[in-house]
Every structure is written in C-alpha cells, then in structure tokens.
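STRUCTURE REQUEST FORM
Protein name: glycerol-3-phosphate dehydrogenase
Source organism: Durusdinium trenchii
Requested output: structure tokens
Priority: standard
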Amino acid sequence: MVAVKTDDRPILILGAGINGAALARELILNDFPVCVVDQGDLAGGTTAWSSRLIHGGLRYLEYSEFDLVRESLRERNLLLKLAPQFVRPLRLYVPTSNRFGGLATSLRKFFHFQRKKPSKRDIDRGLWLIRMGLHFYDAYAQDEVDPEQYRWLCSYSDAQIVFPERFVAALLTDAAEEAQRRGISFEMFNYHEARLDGRQVTIRARDNKTPGEEEASTGPVVREFEPVAIVNATGAWVDLTLKRLKIPSRRLMGGTKGSHFVTSHQGLRDALKGQGIYAEAADDRPVFVLPLGKDYTLVGTTDVRYTGNPGKAIPTDEELDYLVDTVNHIVPGTPLTRDDIDFHYAGVRPLPYTDATTTASITRRHWLERADHAEVPTYSVIGGKLTTCRSLAEESAHELAKVLRPDSPYEAKSIDRPIPGGEDYPSNKAELEATWEKLAAESCFDPQQIESMWLLCGTRVRKFLAQDGQLSSELLVGTDLPLDFVRWSIRHEWVRRVDDLVERRLMLLYQPSLSEATLRRLGDLLIEERGISQEEADSQVQATIDRLRDHFGKRLTATAIE
Ligand SMILES: Cc1cc2nc3c(=O)[nH]c(=O)nc-3n(C[C@H](O)[C@H](O)[C@H](O)COP(=O)(O)OP(=O)(O)OC[C@H]3O[C@@H](n4cnc5c(N)ncnc54)[C@H](O)[C@@H]3O)c2cc1C
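Status: completed
Returned output:
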C-alpha cells in the first residue's frame, strides 16, 4: 500500500447522509481536517426515507449474514446508550399461523440453494422457524442494556430511530464543535457540488438553474483545494458521483426502491399499543407496521429494482395498494383504505450491484471500494444501514488512517462518545418528565414546549435555554416550538431553505397540523436570519407546498390549527 504524504489538506467527503456525517465525525476525532459537500441538504437522501429501525436485521439470518447481524446488534445496543434521545427500544411481534411453513424456504436460502418460485406453504414463516431465528438473534444480542426484560412467544426487541435526520444534524454538530476544540478545519457545504480536475477540487454553489444531474453548476466558486483523499459517501448516487468526478469505474451500485406510507388511523394505532409488527406479505417480503411519534403509524416497505434518479423516487399506486392490503391482512380489525394515508415516501437502498435473482438476497454488508484510476486516492462507501453508521465510520476511518498516516496509531474514538443531546440523560420516564418540568419552571416555556424541543435535540435543549439574551415565549404558528428555537436551528444547523426546516430540522412533515401559515412564518424567519429576499422566501414556500403535495402526497391546511 502506498503511503500518502501527511499534511493539513482535508479529506473531502461527498454526501452528508448518515454515513458521510458519521465518517466526518470519526475523522475529526482522529485529527483529520475534513470538508463535507452535499449536492442537496444534509440527510436529504436515503437516510430520510428508511423504515427508521435500528435493528440487527432478523431476516439476514436467513442469508447466513451472521457477522452482519452480530455487528448490527452490537451497534444497536451502543446507540441505545449513546443516543437515547433518538434511539429507543421497540418491541416487535411476528404473527404466524402455522408451525412449519417457511422452514423449507429458509433452509434453502440458508444453504444458498434457491428454488425459483416459493410454494404457498413456504410463504408463512412458521412458528418453529421464527423461534429458531429469535433464539439466534437474542443470543447474539447479549448485553447489559438489552431492552428485553420479558419474553413472549414470537416477539422480540429492537430499536427505533424516529428522526435519523436529527441524528445526522447532531453528528455534524459534534464534528464542527470538536474540530473547533482541536483547532482543525471542518467545513460543511450543503447545496454545493464538487468537481475534480486532476488533483484539484472546485466547490461551487448549486444554483436552481442547473438543469439536470449531469450538467455542472454555474454557481459561484466558494473553494478550491487539493484534498488528501476523497470519500464518495453518496449512497445510491455513488456511480453518478464517480461519473461527475470523471473517475472511471465498473458499476458499483444496484439500488432497490422501498416505499412507505404514514397514517394517523386511530384504530391501527390503538391496535399496536405502542409496539411494532414484523410480518411477511404474500410475496415473502417483510413488512413493518411501526408506531411513529405521537400521531402516526409507519408502514413499509417494498423492494423493487430502481435505476432512475434516487432523489425522484416516489411510491407507485401499486406499491401503496400492496402495503394497504398487507396491513389489512395482518390487522384485519382495522380496515384501512388509500384515503387513510396521510403521506408517503420512497427511498433507494445503496446496495452493491449484483445479478442476484431476488432483491432481498442482496447483501446488506458495507465496505469501502478504492478507485483504481484516480489521481487523488478515492474511496466509495458501498452499502451500509442506519444501524451500522458508527461501525462503518470507524472501519472506514481506520482504513484511511492506514494509508494517510501509516506511522500513527489509530484509536476508535466514537465507541463511548454520546451523540450530542444524549449526555446526562434521564434514566427513566419519571426522571425524564421531571426534567421537562424543571426546565419549564426555569424558563418561559411550558413542559409540552420543552418536550417538543427535546424530541429534536435531547439534553441540548439546555444549551438553547442557556444562550445569552432574553428568550421570547412566542411559538411557531400551529406548533409547540418556540420561534427562538427555530432561529437557533437556522443559525447553528446549516439551514438554507424552508424545506430544510420542514423535512429535516423541525420535522414538521410529521405534524398533522402543518399548514401554509406555518410555512409562510418560516419564510419570514429565513428573511430575518439569512437575509434572503421576500421574493426568494415566497418562492421557497411555494416550492415546499408543491413538493409536499407531489412528492409526499401530503395535504396542508390553509390556516394553522392553534
Ligand atoms: C426503504 C428503505 C428502508 C430502510 N430501512 C432501514 C432501517 O430500518 N434500518 C436501517 O438501519 N437502515 C435502513 N435502510 C438503509 C439506510 O437508510 C441507508 O443505508 C442509509 O440511509 C444510507 O445512508 P448514506 O449516508 O450512505 O446515503 P444517503 O442518506 O442517501 O446520503 C447520500 C447523500 O449524498 C448526496 N449526494 C448525492 N450525489 C452527490 C454528489 N455528487 N456530491 C455531493 N453529494 C451528493 C445526497 O444528496 C445525499 O444527501 C433502509 C433503506 C431504504 C431505502
């Protein structure tokens, strides 16, 4: 392996999804200067369009991916400790109706011997198979923080990350603050693009006039430098990114699309009682029915080959019908219709390219792939789940350190480092509620408003409350969020547009009462805080309304419900 001269040149990370952000933080913790560039917003890719589980991947046992399951369960247990503000235990139930079905299919898969079409009997997973799988799963997950305290037949414990978007913002905040403490450089450019000419990288603002994925932006150049290495952490866009950088490569990615819908159907929520269901649909695909926050249930997912622009993926009518039918099959007492869907989304899995016959059997492992013909050492992140973002970052940083600093020892630095907002976390519900009461008593906000902020940033709320100057008790119309909190987010969390606030910072997409009035208020705040023009704010509000309707199928109320 050729060692590269060590100096203060940054490592360029392309992509600020969960993997790019986790890697940026890990590199900063190892004293590498870092520059992150995302062509869109942070966490604006697949990270926002997943099933939001932090899980071992029970199903991967069927494909003999034991190491992956073990790694995922270890990471799940770590994240429950390091990020309790975002990652919470979730009990899941596996419904089954016969004792032996599915066993034959699974054993065939286990020994890599596939039959083309599963029989009807194979489709039901069967009690014995599930018990066997859960036995392995729990055996792997032995750890003192395993949330499992009791055991029912065909139920198991995993975890949920309600807002991975907030997790990414916290990772990047940690990277930025830690870089400042260490006196090394950390730069973050969202809505920018990087072009490579020899060893020289040029970063330009991405202007809205840029017509397609392939055309170079004509926005102003904000930075030119020679990176010491490039990490292409652009997920489902990995091949497109290499093409844009003009780095020759074989096809690396073969993403599949997965769709979800979100419903506030009360009967379904009542049936779940705060717990999740993991079931198999008629075509052998796993389908999750999961509680999501206070108001919603999340249902997904599908698994279909996809070759288009990952940013444009939306569920088809057929996929939504399939998911609705599956829920009606699993929870027959609560008939759902398409009208019960509040909104929907689809994401493209960053899976390695293969000619596997079934999409479910494509490996969910992750690795770094080095480009053979690049002047600057360039690595692409292949695969990776939300669950394994920390271990992926650790392994990748280690691999980079071996090349860039072969003589310095490498230490894993994130294994016991809380994600900002997870420090000094209350240890149970009573303590949590007492903390909200206490913070409310010490501020001008009530406990419900404290809770709303807490869900977005955990114990970091204290930082917001402790800032200089008088805080106003005025709220963002139609929400429990203080206007000053929105201002704080705009100032500290790389917010540029109205949809950043709606989809990825304040998580208003997940509020049933989101109204056009709320969006207009956000436009006003961006005028005040970022100095954008009234015309620009109006156009961002309209673009957000259009996107909520066309991309998510979300209906807005015209005025706020107070
Ligand atoms: C349907 C579905 C369900 C899933 N469920 C789960 C689950 O329950 N649990 C779990 O652990 N995992 C799950 N996953 C997997 C997980 O969501 C992804 O593996 C993970 O989010 C990938 O993160 P990433 O950072 O690699 O990619 P992304 O989040 O896609 O980030 C890539 C970023 O790169 C940017 N970008 C693209 N091109 C460029 C460029 N040229 N220059 C700069 N930036 C660029 C994009 O804007 C984007 O922000 C699921 C995935 C899907 C699709």
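Reviewer notes: The radius of gyration is 23 Å. The CA atoms of residues 1 and 389 lie 26 Å apart.
Form closed.
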